[in-house]
Amino acid sequence: MNEDQIQALNSIARTRLIEAGQVIMSDQEPATFFANIISGTVKLIKNTPDGRQQIVGLLFAPDFLGRAFSRNNPYFAEAATDVEICMFPNAAFERLVESNPDLQHRLFERTLDELDAARDWMLLLGRKTAEEKVASFLLLIARRQLLSGCTHDGLGQADGSFALPLTRADMADYLGLTIETVSRQITRLKLSGIVAMNSNRVMAVPDMARLAAAAGQTAAAQG
C-alpha cells in the first residue's frame, strides 16, 4: 500500500483494548466492524444446536478478525487474553477494499490461509494421537507468539518462553480431549525434556525441532 492508501485506512481506524474473557463479537449479530489484532489471542467459538460451545479457531497478531462483505458474524469471538485490536467500520472498509487491489489481494490471501488452517486442524483432530494433538497445539502457540514478538505478560520473552493463552479446559475443548488427557500429555512432554514449565501458564521450548517431531510434523513442515 502506498502512503495515501495507508492514510485512508488510518482515517477510519480506531484502537480498542479488550480484557480477557470479554466477548468481542457475537454469533449471528450484524457485522458492523472488521479488525486487525495488534496483540493478544482471540478464541473463535461456534454454538451447537443443543447449546454447547466449541472452540473452532484461534487468532493472534497480526490476524484479521471478522469478515468483510458479510452481513452477519459466523461465530463468537472472545478475548482469551487481554487483546488490543484496530477496528474499521465494515461499510467504510469495504469501500476502501473495492478501490484498492492490494487490499483485495491481502484479503484473498487471508481466506486461503484460513482454508489451509482448517484443513490442517481437520487432520489433527481426525488422525493424530493425543500426544501429537497437544504437541501440535503447543507448537502453534510457540510459533505464533514468538513470531509476533510480544514482550508483555510473559509472552515471547528473549529466553524463548511464552504464556499459554488457554486454560487446560479450553485446550481440551479445542483438541477434542479431556482435561486429564491434556494434563497427562503436557507432563509427558515435560518429562521428555521437550517443553519446560516456568510456571503454571508460562512454558519454554528448548528445541522447536523436537516439539515439531512430537507433533508428527516432517522437517519440511517446520518452517
- Give Rg in angstroms: 18 Å
Major sheet: order of its strands? Answer: 1-8-3-6
* Count of strand segments: 11
The CATH homologous superfamily of the largest domain is named Jelly Rolls
Q: What do we call the CATH topology of the largest domain?
A: Jelly Rolls
Report the top-level CATH class of the largest domain.
Answer: Mainly Beta
Brief synopsis:
Helix content is 41%, strand content 23%. With 223 residues, the protein is of the alpha+beta class.
Secondary structure layout:
Blueprint: H1 3-11, E1 14-18, E2 23-25, E3 33-39, E4 41-47, E5 53-60, E6 64-65, E7 76-79, E8 83-89, H2 90-98, H3 101-127, H4 130-148, E9 161-163, H5 168-175, H6 179-191, E10 196-197, E11 202-204, H7 208-214
Antiparallel strand pairs: 1-8, 2-7, 3-6, 3-8, 4-5, 4-7, 9-11, 10-11
Helix pairs in contact: 4-6, 4-7, 5-6
Notes on the structure:
It is a single chain. It is globular and about 55 Å long. It folds into 2 domains: 3-114, Jelly Rolls; 128-221, Orthogonal Bundle (Arc Repressor Mutant, subunit A), CATH 1.10.10. The strands form 3 sheets. The chain has a 4-stranded antiparallel β-sheet. Strands 2-7-4-5 form a 4-stranded antiparallel β-sheet. The chain has helices spanning 3-11, 90-98, 101-127, 130-148, 168-175, 179-191, 208-214; strands at 14-18, 23-25, 33-39, 41-47, 53-60, 64-65, 76-79, 83-89, 161-163, 196-197, 202-204. Helices cover 41% and strands 23% of the residues. Strand 10 and strand 11 (202-204) form a beta hairpin. Residues 150-158 and 219-223 have low confidence and may be disordered. It is built from 7 helices and 11 strands. The longest helix has 27 residues, at 101-127. Helix 4 (130-148) packs across helix 6 (179-191), helix 4 runs antiparallel to helix 7 and helix 5 crosses helix 6 (179-191). With 223 residues, it is an alpha+beta fold.
